[in-house]
Amino acid sequence: MTDQPGDHPLPHRELTSQTPLIFTVKSSDVLYRHHRADKDPIYFGTSGNNRFDDPDCRAGHAFGVLYSGEDPQCCFIESCGGTTGVPAVSGAYLDARAMATLELTEDLHFVDLYSTGGLTRIGADGRLFTGSYKIAQRWSRALRAHPSKPDGIRYPSRHDHTRIAYAIFSRPPSTFKTGSLGSLMAPGNRALLDDILSLYQVELL
Fold this sequence. Notes:
By secondary structure, the protein is of the alpha+beta class. The protein has helices at 72-80, 91-95, 127-130, 133-144, 190-200; strands spanning 22-25, 30-36, 65-69, 88-89, 97-104, 108-112, 152-156, 164-169, 176-182, 203-204. Helices cover 20% and strands 25% of the residues.
């Protein structure tokens, strides 16, 4: 069987009757977020510029989406991957960002598009992670409205499919107990930064 070219199909009418694979991130588990240091790490974006944003963001009644990762490596490659066509990142860029920890205060349930069978259960394929943002956003809205009432989407990072990313739908900030590791350039994070740079073969400028 050959790969199907072109854009991913739009959500289909049978989606509401299908049973998605659900992954639960437990209360007290920790997710990570690489964010602008001058902003709060808890930010549910409504710009419409990101993959699983609400497609109706500019209509004035959008749900927001917070993007996070299972580990700092995922957060780095998700936030820096778009700038590393030339495999380098500047210390100034990293100094302007911080790595936050998000400890959950309650269980969150995600449509699991990372684990085996997650895509086929809803009639989707990997183009959701690499193709048209507009189509992925339509799927995000459809999955949020699914009868299983998920809290978000669990999916592979576009720039490293072995890493797990999360798109979390709007919810109270009290869902998270935040902490900060600070900039990856901080002396205390040098071992972590060295590991990330080595892993992705990225040069620090």
